[in-house]
Structures are given as structure tokens and as C-alpha cells.
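Trying the structure run again after the queue cleared.
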Amino acid sequence: MKCSVERLIEALIGVELAQQRKAAEKKATQERKASYVVTVSRGYGSQGHHIAQVLADRLGVRCCDREILEGVAAQADVDNELVKRLEENLENSSNSPWGAFFRNRPFPRERYLHHLVKVVLNISQKGGVIVGRGANLILGPGKAFHIRIVGSLESCAQRVAKRKKIDLEAARERIKTKDRQRADYLKQLYGIDINDCRYYDLVINIDRFDVDSALELILYSMQLAGYDLPKELRKAV
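Done. C-alpha cells:
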């Protein structure tokens, strides 16, 4: 029969081994999450941002949109609103948005892109769902899973009209303006057509899927692409 000292030692060993296993599992989970890097390009009114947030919640990582804008502003030491205006008017880069942005100092778009690349790369090292800003082009193939969410003008207009409490015609014009700005942004910075499917791993027409179905489709595609998704993430996959 074992003495109390032996039982105590065995108990202490058991506790230590359990703590080591718990720490190893926690580290493995953190490493797995850090590998979840997804970029989401979306048409205005396509629910792309909502899908990105739901995906980030399921993966247990950050959904980064405004954080990118804030990161660029912080690195450039300028106001967030100026970066927002700059991004919305990139095609007019020789005009007022850029002038306000660089505070009378030379600030070519190459410097803006330099700050943007640093912010996106920093996010990608920790894992996250990155919305917009051509992050798929910064990270390139193999370094993230790249998604584009699109929808017909009419279906997107109905969602925008309801959300913004405007009529359908106003919603259509708003969509055309926003989509043109996003397309111009990629064209000016990267020389790329935003609708060129070669730069995405998966393009989803949201007219055919609800948000939950789109999420399961994304997770299934990530699994096929080689991502390590534990069972709790693959509910319906």
C-alpha cells in the first residue's frame, strides 16, 4: 500500500501533466487561429461585411475593417477621417484628399500603400478576417483564403433601401457609386479589376445563399483548401 508521500507525489505529477497538456492545447489553438487569415472583398449591399464578421466569430479571430483605416492613420500620424476621405477619393489623388492627408508634405500613394501593407501584414501574422482594401492582392495566393461576395443590383438595392431607409432608386445609385469607388481604389493602387476572379479563391453570389449557407460554404472550401478546422467549426460541413 502506497504511503501518503507517494500518493502526494503522484497527485502533484498528475496536476503538472494536466497543466502541461492544457498549455499545449492552448498553444495549438492559438497557432491554429493565427493560421486563419481570410480576405473579404464585397459588393456594396451584398452583406459581405456581415458575413465577414460572422466568419470571424466562428473562427475566433478579429474582423478587421475600420482597424485597417485606424492603423494606416496611426502610422502616418494623421486623422482617421482624412484616411477615410482619401480611400473614398483615391481616383482624385492629385486633389484635396491627398493634400489634406499629407499636411503639405510629399505623400505619394506609394507611401499610403507602404503603410497599408504594413498594417495588413501585421494583422495576417495574428490571424483575422480582413475586409476590403485589396488585402487579397497584398497577401497574394497561399498566404490567406480570398473571398469575394457579390449580388445583383436589385437584391442589393432592396437591402440598402431597407437599411438606410431610402427608396430603391436612391439605393441603386448609392450602390453604383460605392462599387465604382471600390473598383477605382483597386485600379488606382494595384492596376487590378476588382471583378477579376483570378484573385479570389471563392466567389459567392449572395442571391443564391443566405448568410448561414454562405458561411458553411466558406468553411467547407477552406477545409478543402487545407485549413485545419476542428469539428466544432465544421458544424454543418
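The two ends are 52 Å apart (CA to CA). Worth checking whether this holds up in the mutant runs.
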